[in-house]
# Entry
Amino acid sequence: MIAEIVITALLVIAGVFGLVGSWGLVKLPDLMTRLHAPTKATTVGVGAVLIASMAEHWRTGGGISFHELLITLFLFLTAPITAHFIAKAHMHRKVAAAELPATGSGVAWAGQDGARPAGAAPEAASADRA
Amino acid sequence: MIPYALGFAIGCFALALALNLWQVTRARAVPDRVLALDTMVINVIALLVLYGIAAGTGLYFEVALLFAMTGFLSTVAYAKYLLRGDVIE
# Structure
């Protein structure tokens, strides 16, 4: 009975989080804010679904299965990498180098190698691009 | 109690998929579309696992795992292409 209640709660939480993540994707104004919605909410949603699946498998007498843990681990490892790459592509295409804060070193922001900071050798930046 | 919650969760994720599809067609910038497609992959993984619970088989976990891997690889490859104009330099 308690297992049933826990599984039901996890499924409802998962559904709400998945919906909120995708709704945020539609509603938020620009890409940098939009990144928050799916990478946080949807991974929590999928995590809750996977825990519910593990609990259901255990409840119906199949023992604890570790496939779900594998998917959870994979998603939790890859979601930040995906978000980082999309943010990088967005910065590369849309954000001018002058709008970004200083990096505090002689190197420009990653993805902004065309715009070199003051004092950097021009050949280094253009060689990177070739 | 569990079948109702399953139906609710499947409905939520189906609606989320529809919202993502709308976002793919609506977004103007390419990284926006890539982000929407990546979210679609995550929602499809959730739907697959939910269907696995409903059907009572463990077959769909392998499908979900493969889907997670291809989704991650395609998103990273697309972002890399947008960044560098090439996937493998």
Notes: Confidence is low (pLDDT under 50) at residues 116-130 of chain A.
